[in-house]
Q: What sequence folds into this?
């Protein structure tokens, strides 16, 4: 599959994304109730979402960035999660909020949750994903928070890429087939 900008249809507009992100942040502000949080952004895909989300969080917050990859230059996952850079500070006793772009097979989410549980005795570990492709799940994992459910289509924009491109779009689009 090849994706050209003129083939893209808007799935979630900038306004829809920003409104939903504010709702998610409100839910989180209620849940954490002023307690400190360490937000862990999964690069590269979650960068736009994480940056917009944390602007609406009102507790004392630190940001960490880790980098994983599973796709390469295709639109289907390789099935293997590659931890490109997963250096983190001591998260024992912390409220950890993992921020992802999309949960597809669930392999990445599962890998990250297992990694956190194995390495740290955190106070809490929550997983937040902008998008949730529930129909393509291969392992049993659900995000604690998600923005929108999407069906089985390859989406780009707002951090999500096709072969490295389209991360800079302010909306989420897909190619109509
Ligand atoms: P999973 O491990 O199969 O759940 O896939 C998670 C990762 O695959 C996400 O963090 C994305 O980077 C990537 N991914 C999954 N679906 C899409 C898509 O539709 N567009 C762009 N990237 C995707
Ligand atoms: Mg990702």
A:
């Amino acid at each position: 599959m090849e994706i050209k900008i003129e083939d893209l249809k808007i799935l979630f507009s900038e306004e829809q994304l920003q409104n939903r992100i504010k709702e998610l942040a409100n839910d989180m502000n209620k849940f954490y109730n002023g307690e400190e949080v360490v937000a862990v952004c999964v690069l590269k895909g979650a960068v736009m979402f994480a940056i917009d989300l944390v602007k609406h969080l009102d507790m004392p917050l630190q940001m960490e960035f880790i980098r994983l990859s599973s796709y390469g230059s295709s639109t289907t996952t390789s099935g293997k999660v590659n931890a490109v850079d997963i250096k983190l500070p001591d998260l024992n006793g912390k409220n950890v909020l993992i921020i992802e772009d999309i949960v597809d097979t669930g392999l990445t989410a599962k890998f990250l949750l297992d990694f956190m549980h194995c390495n740290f005795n955190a106070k809490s570990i929550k997983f937040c994903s902008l998008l949730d492709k529930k129909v393509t799940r291969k392992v049993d994992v659900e995000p604690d928070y998600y923005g929108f459910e999407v069906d089985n289509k390859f989406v780009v924009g707002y951090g999500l890429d096709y072969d490295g491109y389209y991360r800079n779009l302010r909306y989420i689009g897909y190619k109509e087939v």
User: Anything to note?
Assistant: The domain at 20-150 is CATH 3.40.50.2020 (Rossmann fold). The chain has one domain: 20-150. The chain is about 25% helix and 30% strand.
